[in-house]
Design a protein that fits this description.
Elements (H helix, E strand, L loop, with lengths): L1 H15 L2 H9 L7 E3 L1 E2 L3 E2 L4 E5 L6 E6 L3 H18 L4 H17 L1 H11 L4 H21 L6 E3 L6 E9 L2 E5 L7 H13 L2 E5 L5 H17 L7 E4 L3 H9 L5 E5 L2 H13 L3 E5 L4 E5 L5 H13 L9 E7 L3 H13 L19 H16 L3 E4 L16 E4 L8 H4 L6 E7 L2 H9 L3 E2 L1 E5 L3 H8 L8 E4 L11 E2 L2 E2 L6 E2 L8 E9 L15
Parallel strand pairs: 1-5, 8-9, 8-11, 9-10, 11-12, 13-14, 13-19, 14-17, 16-17, 19-20
Antiparallel strand pairs: 2-3, 2-10, 4-5, 6-7, 7-24, 15-16, 18-22, 21-23
């Protein structure tokens, strides 16, 4: 009787899952009924709290995921450490070959993974697929890097001596990722970490566990086929307690955290208290500045994408727009026409430009910000409401507002609101706009639209933007993988992806070698008894 009832419950769960969702999960080998194991350390398990993955478009429960118990987390950390002691001995070019195979496996599932990102996170399909492509691209980058992770030879002042700067694998890297990029941020870290010879333990956002499970299945399959312990890329789903345990663990050499400034401050202090390494990717309160000489046919669509893309839920989303007084009216008129053309709806449907906010809590933050704007006398040019015909999902109207004051000390300007709200101010001189750009606590991305080389020079120079990303005639959103990605000030100073970011994943040593018959001291010190 119990077996019959269990079979009935499984069938009922399958039927409750929409065909749309079932097809996406099935394409990636994810169960469409029952509970899913959310812990991987070479074996799939999970007997902790059950977390629900909820589709932000429809409100349906996509899956119930079994998270890690404290004991399972402890074991996962141990097995990740053990896997590291083996993997660090694998030659770097061989690690690169494994990364190449991971790249091929991801590329083969790019469309399916992109659809899952859209289903679980809410971004439109082209952005979901683009996010997976970013993981593919960083794998390509890391494959080449695996043969180029070089140290340096430094000239010694002492005869018969040479100095080497030698990189070695660092240890265990923990990746705590956010909901808005449930695949790419892990990809940045995993690719560089594997190339460096480290093991990685991933704790994804508790609201996007399915993306993490699907990616881990792909990665672990490649590792195991190559005789590499699966725990080189471990996964632990869970909530705040799991994150705290990982951050506090002395078995973790480097913590990469993506999330809010508030939590990032806690993470940074915790890791620093045990003298660990940390990469922080925190708030972005990004501004675009449009000069009167700008090509508006380029600037306006880019601002539109920056503010509305991913429903304003990118860390690089455009949240502030500073317009020169001579072109302000024209830019706002063009922008409002584009906003009026937005097609909201199911992110998996072709033609949709605006998906939902990720959660009900995000909707509350949006409406709280709108209420504050209205209460402070701001002029709402467009938006500010919920889409009434899309009541089952977390759909809100992209909003353009002109606050009463451009004072960056005001809460409206200095606080990042993770929603499609664009605040506008009008300036007379570039210096004024740069002052506003730099006047907020965050310092991630910034953009200047101009055709004047003098403006360009000032913008990227010492008296220009103080952000980690300083663009010219390119929007704030949509960075490529080749350069280091990250921000300054309260964004956390972390750098990931390209450039010299890989050096953070290494243990560096200065090695002085004496190949002479003498043992002179540096700086000419004479210490002979």
């Amino acid at each position: 009787m119990l077996q019959l009832r269990s079979r009935f419950v499984r069938r009922r769960l399958t039927r409750l899952l929409s065909t749309r969702a079932s097809n996406v999960l099935s394409a990636l080998g994810l169960p469409t009924s029952g509970e899913i194991s959310g812990v991987y350390d070479g074996q799939w398990k999970g007997s902790g709290d059950v977390m629900s993955s909820v589709c932000p478009t429809t409100g349906e429960v996509l899956a119930r995921v079994k998270s890690a118990t404290p004991e399972e987390l402890h074991v996962a950390l141990e097995r990740t450490r053990e896997a590291y002691t083996q993997f660090r001995l694998v030659p770097a070019p061989r690690r690169g070959e494994i990364l190449r195979q991971i790249r091929e496996a991801l590329a083969a599932k790019r469309e399916d993974l992109g659809a899952l990102v859209s289903l679980e996170m809410g971004k439109i399909r082209t952005e979901g697929v683009g996010e997976v492509q970013e993981f593919v691209d960083i794998c390509d980058y890391a494959v080449g890097l695996s043969r180029m992770m070089n140290g340096r030879v430094v000239a010694s002042e002492r005869p018969g001596h040479t100095i080497l700067e030698v990189p070695n694998p660092l240890g265990v890297v923990a990746v705590l990722s956010a909901f808005n990029f449930p695949v790419a941020v892990y990809g940045w870290n995993l690719s560089l970490s594997l190339a460096a010879g480290n093991a990685t333990i991933w704790k994804p956002s508790p609201t996007t566990p399915l993306c993490a499970i699907a990616v881990t299945k792909i990665v672990s399959g490649v590792l195991e086929r190559n005789g590499i312990p699966g725990a080189v890329a471990s996964l632990v789903t869970g909530g705040k307690e799991a994150g705290e345990a990982i951050v506090e663990s002395r078995d973790v050499e480097l913590v990469s955290f993506t999330g809010s400034e508030h939590v990032g401050r806690i993470v940074g202090k915790s890791v620093a208290s045990r003298f660990g390494k940390v990469i922080l990717e925190l708030g972005g309160n990004n501004a675009s500045i449009i000069m009167p000489d700008a090509d508006l046919s380029l600037a306006v669509p880019s601002v539109f994408f920056g503010a509305v893309g991913t429903a304003g839920q990118r860390c690089t989303s455009t949240r502030r727009l500073y317009l020169h007084k001579d072109i302000a009216s024209e830019v706002l008129e063009r922008l409002q026409k584009l906003y009026a053309s937005v097609i909201p709806g199911d992110p998996l449907v072709d033609g949709t430009l605006l998906g939902p906010l990720h959660s009900k809590a995000a909707c509350e933050i949006y409406f709280k910000a709108i209420a504050h704007l209205r209460g402070s006398g701001a002029r709402i040019l467009t938006g500010g409401n919920k889409y009434q015909h899309l009541e089952s999902g977390n759909f809100v109207e992209p909003t353009i507002a002109i606050p009463k004051s451009p004072d960056t000390k005001d809460h409206i300007w200095k606080t990042e609101t993770f929603a499609p709200i664009l605040n506008v101010a009008i300036f007379e001189h570039l210096d004024q706009a740069i002052e506003w750009n730099n006047g907020v606590p965050q310092g991630l991305s910034s953009s200047l639209w101009t055709r004047d080389l003098r403006n360009l020079g000032k913008w990227i120079g010492p008296s220009g933007s103080d952000c980690g990303i300083v663009n010219v005639n390119v929007g704030t959103s949509g960075a490529e993988i080749g350069a280091a990605f990250g921000g300054n000030k309260s964004t956390g100073w972390g750098r990931e992806s390209g450039g010299d970011s890989w050096k953070q994943y290494m243990r560096w040593s200065a090695c002085t070698v004496n190949f002479s018959d003498e043992a002179p001291l540096a700086q000419g010190v004479n210490f002979i008894a």
